[in-house]
């Protein structure tokens, strides 16, 4: 033990709380958001979290010697604030499937929060489980043989945990997805139910009686961790933290649904509980995430690497405002509130001390655009209008898939990259059809996207 150690044994932070919550997707966002709300709930000493990664051992290896403690750096435009978060009682690698099953089979554990990315739900074109994906097929085959077999995909892991809970007769469980998907509660429930149907249909009835699903809207911009922050934290706090996480001051968590087994008093830490979450979801996914995707593709084509750089570019800012004027008529809030929300977004995006890389946001466009852009595009096209901002995002995505701007990292890269290659007049409808067949058949939309692709190719780069 040394004076600089960050661990509960060294007397830092509080005593680890008993594990009553499990998280799947131990990463930066969970640590800046759900773990932070739990830390700030007045009953925090009663609510410890055991969090599991996808597969990697890296974060548990860094956090274990710190007894789960880490420093949250709240990065405002005028400086940093440092706080040790103690709500993470255990950090586990995803491969520790025995612990996963044991915890979900424990009556002490009453809820599972999830952040596994949009792609992590393995949805197919009809919104249900994509039964043809090899990873899904492997997991289904493994669970058919043995419900305790080690599995990889999030839907299968959740189902395996629910089966363990049924075996142990451990009582009600609440599933709380926190990924950027509208209706994430229904989406998660559906893919888990689809696994059950393939593996053990009896579990569907058990789930109806024992598993409730909560839908959430989540917001806190949390970039990928920056190694430079280890030194920043050491200098400011005098403690050696091997896994700090930096986030913005703004935070929002809106939840809709019930927790029969109980939950922390998150509302006293600032969370909102509502019966109607849709307006919150649309406002956030379209205005914030839609603008993020626009900047990720169009901004990186213009040579920018971070959100702050891109929003500082008059052209990008004008494009973002254009997108917001496409989306705003389809939101339920009063115009003045939407205006204020957008103005606040410009300020959040412009935070010069947040290095939120466009490359990170650009990943998995095939999953993200469906949530962030398409609902507005469809509503505008149904009304006979051509939404200029939405067209621009799609055109920039086509260019991105053809090698302009941020590099392509996409769960469906094998399908969408080939679609984007070759003569543009063929490529554009093919790419649009990969998002929604009807879009590829919309000749006016295809022509508008082609015109913007042409502009990006000729003028878009600095
Ligand atoms: N970072 C943000 O600003 C932010 C804000 C709001 C919502 N979110 C949501 O949280 C998600 C995660 O963001 P993050 O910044 O924590 O990312 P991250 O890379 O730091 O962590 C992601 C975690 O999910 C796991 N994971 C990834 N793919 C998986 C899969 N297919 N199955 C199971 N586990 C998987 C990873 O192993 C890791 O544990 C985002 O995709 C988004 O939906 C993020
Ligand atoms: O985290 P991703 O990769 O799903 O998307 C990147 C960003 O658009 C997103 O994470 C935002 O930062 C976040 O949604 C803000 O609350």
UniProtKB/TrEMBL annotation:
Domain Mannitol dehydrogenase C-terminal as annotated: residue spans: 276-455
Domain of life where this protein originates: Bacteria
Residues covered by the Mannitol dehydrogenase N-terminal domain: 20-267
InterPro entries membership: 6-PGluconate_DH-like_C_sf, 6PGD_dom2, Mannitol_DH, Mannitol_DH/Oxidoreductase, Mannitol_DH_C, Mannitol_DH_N, NAD(P)-bd_dom_sf
Keyword presence, Isomerase: no
Catalytic reactions on record: D-mannitol 1-phosphate + NAD(+) = beta-D-fructose 6-phosphate + NADH + H(+)
One Pfam family recorded for the sequence: Mannitol_dh_C
Keywords annotated in UniProt: Oxidoreductase
Stored PANTHER family: MANNITOL DEHYDROGENASE 2-RELATED (PTHR43362:SF1), MANNITOL DEHYDROGENASE DSF1-RELATED (PTHR43362)
The protein's name in its UniProt record: Mannitol dehydrogenase family protein
Source organism (scientific name): Planosporangium thailandense
